[in-house]
Amino acid sequence: MAIGTVMGLVLGSVPLAGQVLEPLIAAVNGIPKIALAPLFLLFFGIGPMSKITIAAAGVSFVVFYNVYLGLRLRERELVEIVQVMGGRRHHVLSYVTLPTLAAPFFAALKTGGPLAILGVIGGEFIASTEGVGHELFTAATNLDAPTEFAGLIVLVAMTLILNGVLSALDTLALKRLGLGDRRSRRKTV
User: Fold this and answer.
1) Which long-range contacts link 141-145 to residues 24+ away (Cβ below 8 Å)?
2) What is the pLDDT of residue 184?
3) How many C-beta atoms surround the C-beta of residue 45 within 10 A?
4) Using CA atoms, how far apart are residues 137 and 135, in angstroms rounded to an integer?
5) What confidence score (pLDDT) does residue 188 get?
6) What is the C-alpha to C-alpha distance for residues 34 and 142, in angstroms, rounded to an integer?
7) Residue 21 gets which letter from DSSP?
8) 3-state SS, residue 86
9) How many CA atoms lie within 13 A of 97 on its CB side?
10) What was the pLDDT predicted at 125?
11) Which residues have a Cβ under 8 Å from the Cβ of 129 and sit 6 or more positions away?
């Protein structure tokens, strides 16, 4: 998440860097992350670091594109108005940039969360002696349908819990930024 956010902020803030590096990032993003898993295993071993790297590879691109495009679609007129009124960089950040990036950022987190789980499970499929992915792979190999369904239920539960946590963070962050539910504001007006 941090890698994608930093890349998105840097390339979105420096247009020339974005124009030069975005095609390269798109090319690297086109490589299936599970195809990189053997390389991650080679470099990081069978332990948790290889699974974390596989998960991070998938999530970072989703976060990057949401932050990058969100920053590029920031309304230039609003930035100019804040600057004309004497606003400094931190004013532009707090009144224009953060509210503009909040929705795409949390959309990226909600999309990236299941991708992270998928990356870890894929890593456990390939080389692991424990974990849900290992259990799913072993159950599939042994044609053990009950264990397979139990593993799938665990994955669904993990995804639902993660989505609930991210939804709560999304709601809290939007309220703090003053971007709460716009439908409720319309009703009170």
Assistant:
1) none
2) 42
3) 11
4) 5
5) 39
6) 23
7) H
8) coil
9) 18
10) 81
11) 46
Query: Nearest to residue 169, comparing CAs of 105, 97, 94, 84?
Result: 105
54: domain range?
A: 2-188
Contact 1, 107 (CB under 8 A): no
Buried b (16+ CB within 10 A) or exposed e, 93-113: eebbbebbbbbbbbbbbbbbb
Structure-block tokens of residue 65: 């594109």
Tell me the CATH number at 54: 1.10.3720.10
Average pLDDT of span 107-127: 85
CB 144, CB 135: distance < 8 Å: no
Mean pLDDT across the stretch 105-131? Answer: 85
Reported confidence tier of residue 181, pLDDT bands at 50, 70, 90: low
Among 59, 57, 61, 73, residue whose Cα is nearest residue 7: 61
Query: Number of helices and strands (H, E) in the chain?
Result: 10, 0
The residue type of 151 is: G
Average pLDDT, the chain: 84
Give the amino acid at 179: L
Q: In whole angstroms, how large is the CA radius of gyration of the chain?
A: 20
Number of structural domains (the chain) is: 1
Show Cβ contacts of residue 65 under 8 Å, excluding neighbours closer than 6 positions: 4, 8, 108
**The pLDDT value given to residue 66:** 93
